[in-house]
Amino acid sequence: MNSKNASAAARDIFAKAGPVVALIIMCVILSVANKNFLTSANLLNVSRQMTINGFLSLGMMVCILTAGIDLSVGFTMTLSSVVMAICAVKLGWNPYLSLFIGVVTGMFLGLVNGLLLTKCKLPHPFISTMATQNIYKGIALVATGATPIASIPPAIKWAGANFVSSDPSTFLGKVPVCFVMMIVAYLAFSIFLNYTILGRHIYAVGGNMSAARLSGVNVDYVRTMVYVISGFTAAIGGIILTGRTNAAYPLSGMLMENDAIAAVIIGGTSFFGGKGNTLGTFSGVVLITVLRNGLNLLNVTSDLQTIVIGAVILIAVFIDVVRSGGFAKVKRLAKEFAKEIE
Question: Nearest Cα to 285, choosing from 7, 114, 47?
Answer without folding.
Answer: 47
